[in-house]
Design a protein that fits this description.
The protein is α+β, with helices and mostly antiparallel strands. It is built from six helices and ten strands; from the N terminus they run αβαββββααβαββββα. α1 runs antiparallel to α6. The chain is elongated, with a radius of gyration of 21 Å.
Length: about 260
């Protein structure tokens, strides 16, 4: 029997950031100079994954930081963790704005390094003692499989995906599995293809990945055992594309501002 899944039909395409370009020269000048520095650094970097770049904006005036935000725009992926450390991908794939206590950075990477370190720092919790309730179908066996894979997993391995949408599972199964896997305060939202919500479970390397259509209907429900789910990562080919788009955006800004820029 062939089983098909409804998938989102709206893909978020690249759109240049929207900016009024009306900042005073003492704000626009440093902000544009930072974009030049970012672009030039990207040109000397082999890849976002192999050679991440990080720039602190704490040395800039608040107005300049806001102008940099506006010029970089907002992209598809956002990340929130405990301690209010958060990241927002800019309109340029693989370029992130990262904020937290004493942190205000622009980072070029496949995924924000500090947040990746937090995700990989999870420790295996104690095994549950209580017997699962009667009437469950596949949840206990799934939990045993997931916990075993989590304990054996190593950084860099290809993802192991368990597609819950294609498995016979009752709402009680999913509720029990969710409770046993646990949650930590670490979530990712990717809007690149529909809405994908990714939640870190309490088990190392284990993520609950859910896709929703435009009507907020759950259409794909899965567990991934991996460092970071691929849907949240900037791909290798994004490095070159981002450089081209950033170069075009800088040229567009300079053309709009005229010789006085």
């Amino acid at each position: 029997m062939l089983i098909t899944l409804d998938v989102p039909n709206e893909v978020h395409a690249y759109r240049p950031p929207q900016s009024e370009l009306d900042a005073p020269p003492e704000v626009a000048g440093p902000a544009l100079a930072f974009l030049h520095e970012l672009r030039d650094s990207l040109r000397t970097s082999e890849s976002l994954a192999l050679q991440p770049l990080c720039f602190s904006l704490l040395g800039f005036a608040p107005a300049v930081r806001e102008e940099i935000n506006e010029l970089l725009g907002e992209g598809e992926v956002s990340v929130l963790s405990a301690g209010n450390l958060r990241a927002q991908e800019t309109a340029f794939t693989g370029i992130w704005r990262i904020r937290g206590e004493g942190i205000d950075d622009v980072e070029a990477s496949a995924f924000p390094l500090a947040l990746r370190a937090l995700a990989l720092a999870r420790q295996m919790p104690a095994a549950p003692v209580a017997e699962p309730p009667a009437g469950l179908m596949n949840a206990p066996a799934l939990y045993h499989e997931i916990r075993s894979l989590s304990a054996l997993w190593r950084v860099g391995r290809a993802a192991h995906v368990i597609n819950l949408s294609l498995l016979p599972a009752t709402p009680d199964d999913l509720a029990w599995l969710d409770a046993e896997l646990g949650r930590i305060s670490f979530s990712i939202l990717s809007r690149g293809f529909g809405n994908c919500r990714i939640t870190a479970t309490a088990l190392p390397y284990v993520w609950w990945v859910q896709y929703f259509n435009n009507m907020e209907k759950l259409i794909l429900n899965s567990i991934e055992i991996v460092d970071i789910p691929a849907v949240a990562l900037a791909a290798a080919e994004d490095h070159a594309e981002t450089m081209v788009r950033l170069d075009e955006w800088i040229a567009s800004i300079e053309s709009a501002l005229g010789p006085a820029s």
